[in-house]
């Protein structure tokens, strides 16, 4: 291993079991936080469904789903656990900027935000994402179109002082730092570290051996997961998992470590039970209840 990264840690099951939130017997739903999910659009309602379902399976006390009417119609028939914050949409089914005041009120009593999965990139979603980043006083997991929006105005990161977690795949990382995808794939640790330290964020650089890097440059490498997970929706599941742990008051890096390890482990269980070809992100979510049996304290 390059001496420059000799301090890197490999994520282990023992590490994750130690970091997972403890659930006292006298707890109530408020003990485990409230996640604000600002995801999905008419064309991509499944993104919100994956985020919400994964978050619930990972123990968050409650989820508030901030969605447009076309997504609400889809989700409300499929899932009962979240409460809904239904905001206005444009003619194409994306959030409109008129929603901002409602969104900012909605996040006030929450403990974490997942932002961007399936949201779409329009002039108005760009405005909303940037305003949420500037005004939020709770941690934000930024995924999907949230990453693409930030990539076009990278200075917006500096306007947030309450913690950002970025979850890019290599192509999204390429847009963020203006480096070729092949270069990123050849040295994921270097680029994750540089980005995290430069902007004071936690970075989850996805792919084989996903890299987690905190804002101090500490690096953690994941070894769970497989190519059967390379399907649309898998990244949304991960964002929901990390958001759930962060809403339960884990630090950005600990939430990310637990999220990537358990996400990969659920994929490995699905490959064994379903095959890598046929497994789906929904299968991964459903596997989480069996995985947590071995991790509960």
- The outline comes out as globular
The end-to-end distance, rounded to whole angstroms, is 35 Å
Helix content: 40-55%
Whole-number mean pLDDT: 96
> Major β-sheet, in short?
10 strands, mixed
Series of H and E elements = EHEHEHEHEHEHEHHHEEEHHH
Amount of beta strand: 5-15%
Describe the model.
With about 300 residues, the protein is α/β, with parallel strands linked by helices. The chain has one domain: UDP-N-acetylmuramoyl-L-alanine:D-glutamate ligase, CATH 3.40.1190.20. Helices cover about 45% and strands about 10% of the residues. The chain is built from 12 helices and 10 strands. The chain has helices spanning about 15-20, 45-55, 70-75, 100-105, 125-135, 145-150, 170-175, 180-185, 190-200, 235-245, 250-275, 280-290, and strands spanning about 10, 35-40, 60-65, 85, 110-115, 140, 165, 200-205, 210-215, 220. It has a 10-stranded mixed β-sheet with strand order 1-10-9-8-7-6-5-2-3-4, sandwiched between helices. Helix 2 packs parallel to helix 12 and helix 11 (about 250-275) crosses helix 12 (about 280-290). The longest helix is centred in the last third of the chain and has 23 residues, at about 250-275. The chain is globular, with a radius of gyration of 18 Å. It starts with 8 loop residues before the first strand and ends in a 5-residue tail after the last helix.
Note the main attributes of this structure:
297 residues, alpha/beta, 10-stranded mixed sheet, UDP-N-acetylmuramoyl-L-alanine:D-glutamate ligase
